[in-house]
Amino acid sequence: MAKLLGILTGGGDSPGLNAVIRAATKTANKHGYEMIGFLDGYSGVVENRYIKLDSPNISGLLHRGGTILGTNNRSNPFNYAVEVDGKTEFRDLSDQAVENLKKLGIEVLLIVGGDGTLAGGCEFKKKGVKLIAIPKTIDNDLKATDQTFGFDTAVRTATEALDKLHTTAESHHRVMVLELMGRYAGWISLYSGLAGGADVILIPEIPWKLDSIIKKIESRRAEGKPFSIVVVSEGVRSPEGKLVVKRQVEGSVEKNRLGGIGQLVGQLIEEKSGIETRVTVLGHIQRGGSPSSYDRILATQFGTTAAELAVKGIHGVMVCLKGNRITHVPIEEAVGEPRTIPLDHQLLHTARSIGISFGE
Ligand code: F6P
Fold this sequence. Notes:
The chain is 35% helix and 22% strand.
């Protein structure tokens, strides 16, 4: 019987997922392993839904966004939604998932995901499942890796959006607010705000005051620049210190879906300054499209390394980027608290040096 590896993509989609699938499958095949891909994240393992990945179906994947396997940021095998008499109940179906993996003869399961997927991975590891995690998220908020794939593309997309917003800001002498994703970490906002020439960047790591934002906008006016660009990370709290939550998703490891703080900040700026203000929420555009070259390369490195480790019999780890090198750490090191921006991060200093306000 052929030696077999499995792969699944979990959590929100992120540019580069298909590049990982392609690289891991090619590497596995090179070492005499076959690869099967579970559909829709952990759901595919619980429900035994999968496809065989081979040369024809991994062809043309490198530049494609999304994931050919489908994904899911709701399904948690340890708290799995099932329909009982027309009602949704949540059950622990993790043993069923383990049984399915055993029956198929999967030696090692590659899980490509963010903190929710990896937290599930830690629980499966305790049940004796051999797995290797591959870190993915546009938010770049996973511990134990310097960067996740998808982040670079999201920053590129957000930067392009800022370039476009500049046109209207400048022409209409307006304040343009852009709300960006990133959950409880401000990485996308900091990077794209710097690259896109934002005047104010609000991130969850730094508490803000309306007066400071107004001061910055007015000082620009006084210098003959009657427009301003304000980036607001979705995890920024309201002036009362509350998270602004758009919806809650039952069954998801992280229930809260953030959204709406940009609107609030825009409204407050307009009320206080009297300057016409418009708000744009970039939303899922940040997760879409073709991965940047950087993300294609990082995803390919992660995919090949994960498959090579599996072939060598190493498991229970997450592949990661440290400096310029791809290495691995115990999977547990990556889960728990998100990796937020340290307050002494050099880019905060760079931004302040060129006059960007964090609303402090
Ligand atoms: O983690 C990726 C991410 O896009 C976050 O930046 C965002 O808060 C969340 O997922 C949105 O999730 P959903 O696709 O369920 O709305």
